[in-house]
Amino acid sequence: MTSLLELAGVERRRGEGEGAFTLEVGELSLRAGDCLAVTGPSGSGKSTLLDLLGLVLCPDRAEVFRFLDRDVAALWRSGGDGGLAALRSRHLGYVLQTGGLLPFLDLRENVELSRRLLGLGPDSLTGELLARLGLTHLKAKKPRALSVGERQRAAIARAFAHRPALVLADEPTAALDPSLALEVCRLMRELAAEFGIALVIVSHDWALVRRLRLPELRVVPQAGTSGCRSRLEGVSDA
Ligand SMILES: Nc1ncnc2c1ncn2[C@@H]1O[C@H](COP(=O)(O)OP(=O)(O)OP(=O)(O)O)[C@@H](O)[C@H]1O
């Protein structure tokens, strides 16, 4: 199967001068339905990686950066937006640390929001997601009337509802207790595999990632380099 997302020789610097930080991605490849965890200590560059994958941060160097057969590096080089916004809104889904639901929409409307903004018609997937995430009986409730865990599950349904190619989850379980965190991550992994959606979960919770037995990449600060530098490395001791 061909790659959905492929990066090689990608670098991005943040800041200037002595305090500048650089993230280096030697190689990263994802196919439809793949699920991957990215771990690393605070400040190592996990959000920088997600911003690159989310097409919101322009790489300084990219030998290869392809997403859905589009040359992302060339799109960035072409200046302006170059179609990146359309790629982002149609083919990416996001799960944030805390739900990020709109307070004036009910749960179902929140879940359907990406589809509506994209002008997509109804999809049986919405009802299926609500059922799978145990939210059907709550669909008419506003976010303020939901528990933290229910809001987070609604945010997951929203990220998947427009059938994106890739879902990026940034510490999606930070606000949940450990048993719920495990359940929520398992659900995301199941949904991703079932619907052929690639999933990248960023987490500082190494124990959780191990329990899920997810393939893991780690953002590793490099000792002895000038300035701060991190590299994305595979973890082979799982
Ligand atoms: N806009 C910016 N300008 C300058 N430096 C930045 C900027 N954003 C991030 N950095 C620096 O880049 C490095 C990596 O930050 P990043 O947020 O990617 O790390 P992280 O692993 O996600 O951290 P955390 O787990 O604490 O959220 C840090 O040293 C940070 O200070």
Automatic annotation (TrEMBL):
Organism encoding this protein: Methylococcus capsulatus (strain ATCC 33009 / NCIMB 11132 / Bath)
Protein family per UniProt? Belongs to the ABC transporter superfamily.
Instruction: Give GO MF terms, alphabetically.
Output: ATP binding; ATP hydrolysis activity; transmembrane transporter activity
Its GO CC terms are: plasma membrane
Q: Which InterPro entries match?
A: AAA+_ATPase, ABC_transporter-like_ATP-bd, ABC_transporter-like_CS, ABC_transpr_LolD-like, P-loop_NTPase
Location of the ABC transporter domain? 5-238
UniProt protein name? ABC transporter, ATP-binding family protein
GO BP field: lipoprotein localization to outer membrane; protein localization to outer membrane
Keyword terms, alphabetized: ATP-binding, Nucleotide-binding
